[in-house]
């Protein structure tokens, strides 16, 4: 009986172990290393981390405030227990601790241990009683506000659709409560991030203060067990797909076909400051079996176009011919044609430049410049940050097209649906407007200016 009682009442020493554990986690340590640093076994550290969803309890986080001095500390409770055993009275104990006698009397009355015979005062038991009484649990906001919960869940886990409105289910995914999910199919959803959802609420419901929630509250609803409202399986709709929160805490050679006059240093200043739309960044995302999808992102609006690069007939059946067509579907000719088809469908004012890395898939850049009317520039070697907009977008796309999966399984309709999902997600850098909304506004402004000029 006594062992069960002690097991259910965590000692203050264990509380300090937890505090040291989460401080080590915040510094970037793994669960196992943080546990060793806190003085507990690695398996205990892993259990603490998973039970909390990777998020430190608010009263144990490094940023939490220390308890107010108006409350008795654990050290004071230990002193009370010692003095009580020595036979000191309430007023004597109060003088020793420089506390009011009523404080000591109330402590001995409220937080005494009563399970085994005569009441006895123990510091650990008293601290457990005090912590339990100090709790102020309240229901999660998503649990008591159905319209808000429906809004959050629809934008987090709602199905994506093709441009004609047909819903697209995507691959069938069985949720697994594991950390590593990047090497398997992921759930397709609208997949707005919690911050996008939180910020967009202010635009969609400017007058309704009940439709407000912080992105941190959404993360807690997803990661912390017992919060209710949102199921843990919905973490598969997040971009990273992690079921646990991770604390905050790599080379290609240059290509001889790129002359110095088309390097990124020669790109006009209007492209660098994003003041004028029509400047694009592009790249390929690669998958299993040399499968690939092309990506084009407009720098000003973040509008995204996905290029379907199907494999050529005979792939993995015919021997590859030297200097022949790339049967995998992402050779220079195939990429040039795909970019041309996508770009010529855009208004002329949106066809100014394209920045690419130094991959051989754009070896026919001179022909592309003629066919698409698009000036092409290349980044410096080993400098992916020079295409930061595209790199960020490729990271978002990995939610739908994970590394290590066969990208050739997705047809052009699938790519249109994913592009539509990204283009209708609010972006922080756009003031929580969507890329599609921003692009439409820019085109309307240009049309109005054109009419005024011609008049």
Automatic annotation (TrEMBL):
Source taxon at top rank: Bacteria
Span list, region Disordered: 118-138
Family per similarity comment: Belongs to the transposase IS30 family.
Ranges of residues in domain Integrase catalytic: 264-443
UniProt keywords, alphabetically: DNA recombination, DNA-binding, Transposition
Function: Required for the transposition of the insertion element.
Organism classification: Bacteria, Pseudomonadati, Pseudomonadota, Alphaproteobacteria, Hyphomicrobiales
Protein's organism: Bradyrhizobium xenonodulans
UniProt signal peptide: none
PROSITE patterns: INTEGRASE (PS50994), TRANSPOSASE_IS30 (PS01043)
Protein name per UniProt: IS30 family transposase
Gene3D superfamilies from the UniProt entry: Homeodomain-like, Ribonuclease H-like superfamily/Ribonuclease H
């Amino acid at each position: 009986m006594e062992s069960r009682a002690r097991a259910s009442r965590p000692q203050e020493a264990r509380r300090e172990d937890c505090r040291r554990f989460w401080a080590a986690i915040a510094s970037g340590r793994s669960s196992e290393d943080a546990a060793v640093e806190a003085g507990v076994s690695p398996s205990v550290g892993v259990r603490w981390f998973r039970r909390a969803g990777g998020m430190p309890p608010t009263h144990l986080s490094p940023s939490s405030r220390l308890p107010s001095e108006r409350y008795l500390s654990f050290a004071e409770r230990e002193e009370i227990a010692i003095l009580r055993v020595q036979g000191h009275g309430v007023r004597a104990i109060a003088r020793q601790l420089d506390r009011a006698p009523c404080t000591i009397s109330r402590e001995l009355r409220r937080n005494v241990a009563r399970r085994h015979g005569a009441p006895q005062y123990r510091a650990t038991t008293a601290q457990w009683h005090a912590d339990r009484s100090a709790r102020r649990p309240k229901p999660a906001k998503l649990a008591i506000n159905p319209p808000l919960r429906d809004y959050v869940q629809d934008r987090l886990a709602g199905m994506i659709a093709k441009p004609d409105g047909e819903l697209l289910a995507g691959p069938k995914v069985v949720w697994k409560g594991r950390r590593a999910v990047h090497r398997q199919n992921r759930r397709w959803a609208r997949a707005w991030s919690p911050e996008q959802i939180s910020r967009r609420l202010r635009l969609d419901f400017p007058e309704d203060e009940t439709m407000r929630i912080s992105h941190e509250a959404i993360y807690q609803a997803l990661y912390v067990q017992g919060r209710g409202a949102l199921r843990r399986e919905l973490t598969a709709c997040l971009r990273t797909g992690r079921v646990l929160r991770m604390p905050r805490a790599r080379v290609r050679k240059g290509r001889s076909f790129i002359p110095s006059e088309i390097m990124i240093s020669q790109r006009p200043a209007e492209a660098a400051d994003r003041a004028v739309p029509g400047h694009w960044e592009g790249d390929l995302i690669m998958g299993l079996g040399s499968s690939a999808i092309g990506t084009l992102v407009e720098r000003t609006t973040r509008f995204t176009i996905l290029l379907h690069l199907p494999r050529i007939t005979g792939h993995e059946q015919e021997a590859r011919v030297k200097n022949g067509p790339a049967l995998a579907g992402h050779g220079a000719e195939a990429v040039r044609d795909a970019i041309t088809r996508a770009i010529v469908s855009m208004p002329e004012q949106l066809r100014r430049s394209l920045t690419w890395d130094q991959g051989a898939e754009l070896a026919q850049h001179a022909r592309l410049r003629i066919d698409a009317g698009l000036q092409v520039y290349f980044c410096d070697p080993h400098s992916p940050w020079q295409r930061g907009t595209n790199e960020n977008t490729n990271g978002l796309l990995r939610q739908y097209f994970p590394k290590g999966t066969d990208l050739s399984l997705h047809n052009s309709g699938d790519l249109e649906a994913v592009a539509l999902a990204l283009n209708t997600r609010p972006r922080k850098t756009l003031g929580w407007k969507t890329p599609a909304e921003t692009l439409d506004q820019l085109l309307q402004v240009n049309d109005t200016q054109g009419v005024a000029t011609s008049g």
